């Protein structure tokens, strides 16, 4: 074969290969249809994630989890802090997924303060840290500015 020629070999699937591919296609289509109709987040990837497939009411509230800290610079004031990997070493979702454990044992929050001091050695040390849930009031899909804050767990340095 020379450099300009194109090889035109055709590979044809046998009956068994076509049958299992068709069967797999039917099963996947059935799973996606069932997941779309009755599935929830636990059916993923055969169902849509609820957060993307539903919407909030136009008027109501939205919950947001975050952290607040007391620092050596402001020992009496709780200040919101970013709940990000670059600030504390974990994502907000990782904290939200362990809220029950954190509420049962707030001392776990000390590891976030330790992570912060390692990741940000030039920042003021954290003397206290708390996980808060903010309820943001929304009217006609717009925040009203009204925010209710619930403290879920609190830790203080010894």
Write up this protein.
By secondary structure, the chain is an alpha+beta fold. The protein has six helices and four strands; from the N terminus they run H-H-E-E-H-H-H-H-E-E. The protein has helices at 15-38, 50-53, 85-88, 92-96, 99-104, 110-119, and strands at residues 60-71, 79-81, 126-139, 142-156. Strands 2-1-3-4 form a four-stranded antiparallel beta sheet. The longest helix has 24 residues, at 15-38. The radius of gyration is 26 Å and the shape is elongated.
Number of domains: 2
Topology order in helix (H) and strand (E) letters:
HHEEHHHHEE
Strand content: 25-35%
Q: Report mean pLDDT, rounded to a whole number.
A: 89
The N- to C-terminal Cα distance equals 79 Å
What is the overall silhouette? Answer: elongated
Low-pLDDT windows of residues: none
- Largest sheet, order of strands side by side? 2-1-3-4
The biggest sheet amounts to:
4 strands, antiparallel
Radius of gyration: 26 Å
Number of separate strands: 4
Helices and strands, with pairings:
Layout: H1 15-38, H2 50-53, E1 60-71, E2 79-81, H3 85-88, H4 92-96, H5 99-104, H6 110-119, E3 126-139, E4 142-156
What are its keywords?
single chain, 158 residues, alpha+beta, 34% helix
Structure, briefly:
With 158 residues, the chain is of the alpha+beta class. It has helices at 15-38, 50-53, 85-88, 92-96, 99-104, 110-119; strands at residues 60-71, 79-81, 126-139, 142-156.
